[in-house]
Design a protein that fits this description.
TIM Barrel, GH, single chain, 16 helices, 46 strands, Immunoglobulin-like, eight-stranded parallel sheet
Length: 903
Amino acid sequence: MCGRARMRMRTASNAVVNMLRWALLSGCVGAAATASAGDLHVPSPDWRDQVVYFAMIDRFDDGDPSNNDQGVGEYDPADNSRYSGGDLRGLTRRLDYIQGLGATALWITPPVANQWLNPDRSYGGYHGYWASDLSAIDAHYGTLDDYRALSRALHGRGMYLIQDVVVNHTGDWIGCGDAVDPDDNASIAEHCRLRGDAQGRSAPVQPPFDRNDPQDPADREAAIYHFTPPIADYSNRRQELDYALADLDDLNTENPVVRRALRKAYGDWIREAGVDAFRIDTAFHVPAEFFNDFLHADDPEAPGMTRVAAETGRADFLSFGEGFGSDKPFGDAQARKLDAYMRTPGGLPSMINFPLYGTLGDVFARGRPAAELRHRVESMMTLHADPWRMPSFIDNHDVDRFLASSSEAGLKQALLAMLTLPGIPVVYSGTEQGFREQRRAMFASGFGSGGRDHFDTEAPLYRYLRDAIALRRGNAVLSRGTPVVLAANPARAGAIAWRTDGKEETALVILNSAGHEVLLDDLDTGLPAGTRLQGLFAIDAAPRDLVVGEAGRLTLVLPPHSGEVWRVADTGVRSGRKPSSRRALSPPRRRDAMDAEPLLQGGAMDARLRGHDGDGVAVVGSDFEAHGTAPGTESIRLVIDGDLGNAQTIAIDEAGHWQARLRADDMIDPAIEHRVVAYDPGSGRTSPAQLFRVALDWRLAADITDPQDDDTGPTGTYTYPTGPGWREHRPADIERLRVWTAGAALRFELTMRSLSTAWHPASGFDHVAITAFLQLPEADGARVMPQQHAELPDGMRWHRRLRAHGWSNALFSHEGASADVEGTPVTPVADIAVDHDARTIAFTLPAGALGHPTTLAGARLHVTTWDYDGGYRPLAPEAGATTFGGGEADGARVMDEVSAALK
């Protein structure tokens, strides 16, 4: 140990870690080699080129069962709220598995000693974010020797160690009522109390963090903590910085004593365990100016992290912060907040790219328009000075798994997009094994494992990720280049294409986020005609080569949920050589190959035409007529917004004319400009595009008033959880349901007793989950209400099921649904609009999301409320902090419900 380090860590031995088998990945997995333990301290890598594997220690692997149960009721692998047994030795023995995937760095949750069990919440600190002692290893995870062994084993493989750290809070021992005035000592003494935990403690064990008693004038004067109530308004900056996040004890990070203690504790982890980077939890809840001190302080006894790292040979110690929050489509508020932290002088050099996470999920999991990803890419490249060093991800331990509400096809696309865009890609453990549960254990004896290990290197998603990571690592242009978005469908799921330019290389990436074939016509690549594109990667297909056509353009037919990557092999047309058309994709169109007569003319529209907008674009309110000419062609396909899978095939008459009637009920946003072209599949020719907008005529189909105070479950005995935000506000009480239809498009609006935003929800409401079941005028369907321990009433059967809460918005068909399985994911999901003043939540679904029914007349809608956190919250005879009460564990998860028959 360093002479000036005073850590209460267990003493390390000098034993060499046992020889480990490993696979060296350099573009592809090579032969296994033998490697001994590496150095504790190694130089920093170029972080742009790294791929990170993120593991929750407790849920990854159990290498030492003897440390699992510490005897205070905190260990129970059958309970998601308790320790499962994962530890540092488990991580070390699985490094072959992690490196074989292609990861070059391992990020772990905080290994420090935690509050093991919080009786007030009936929840355990297995996750690592409730610190009791920042200078010690948690007894469940092992010893300092174990941690050093992990670090050396990683370094011996050329890999790096990233430790999760918390500077905003400790565990939960201080409880302050809402009436407390944080600026008044008398009020603090009156309204704040200490509470004990399962270990018999009422404070952290580490000075000065043990000075937390609001009743003690000396502790109040020391000001180690903010004695504050839980955050009630996340838009209030004082609350965000100083109030208790999820009731956790908020450290006063403006106090020099606190700052010095944090620098001392975390600097010693770099020295003593060889940590190469920090992920900093809840960075938004700490002043941005704090990080200049934390990283760069010139204090001989407790220097800043970059100074400690430099002492150990690390010239580029990366610290990246967590700023939890996704932006609305085409919004940048959270991205700008992230950027402000990175641009604060001396502040954090990097932040996790949460806005990109949100948009990747919206586009590839929820079927939102591809243009939303275009905006996000262009925004991050414009806003951020160094997006290449911002970690990116598609799911993690704090949000729903990607597969909880999406398909494997969408997951593959999201991963490919992440791996071909700037940023440090992060893969959350279990993604490569197809996990759908947020904190399921990877090892056989852990929570939710099903009694078996999940380290299968032949699993389809493991193999896919291995190949996709190899693509990134084998082509530096993908980790260091600058993307230029070339095209993105503005109206719906579909094509998005970007070209990435590096110093010496150029790559082209094209994805189709739709579940049907898409026509990407007249793509301007920005490359010279005749440029040869070498296929590098394709999802579920063999890579194909292309040659760029006339004027640098390509017209391609994209398979459903496809993704392809090419590199520029050479540019320009060599002497005597013309662009090749020998490929299975459509060649570039010729604009003069079809009659230039517009496809849409005002006179050709039916009586529902509303006129034109200020730009002269046609505006329609329902189904409409289109016509045009295509001389010399037997038939054409009429393609709206690139949707080739649902395009009409139209016969051409003897005079070369055609006409067709088009549905409008797939187009629910009047602000979107839609695009229609006539396409000849035989020749690959397309007409000039015509633009139009749709402002649907919505018709009221049902208006149901629901009784107040009936949010007591099917037995009338249910009670809300005891935690703040439920009982006092009763957010699951429905007061009114209104339903509108426009053709086969559906909109329904719920008026609620109250709407909560206490947890800063992305969807605009929390403390309640809405589950809605739609029965179409069809014979089949399902009666079961998945995961709610109930069936639909009155013999109803559902064909579409919507589940939405603060951080999820999912839609399912009844195929494959059971008591445990939610059904088959369907896109696009509903548009959600929240009006807090009116207490309403509105959901709008296009006809395509419902399977393009001919009508909704005679359909039935059934809506229920409960709450959700990685699954519907539990029910018990007695309510708990996050558990509903008044029923048996297998009782129906329904707090209130309302039905409507559509006319």
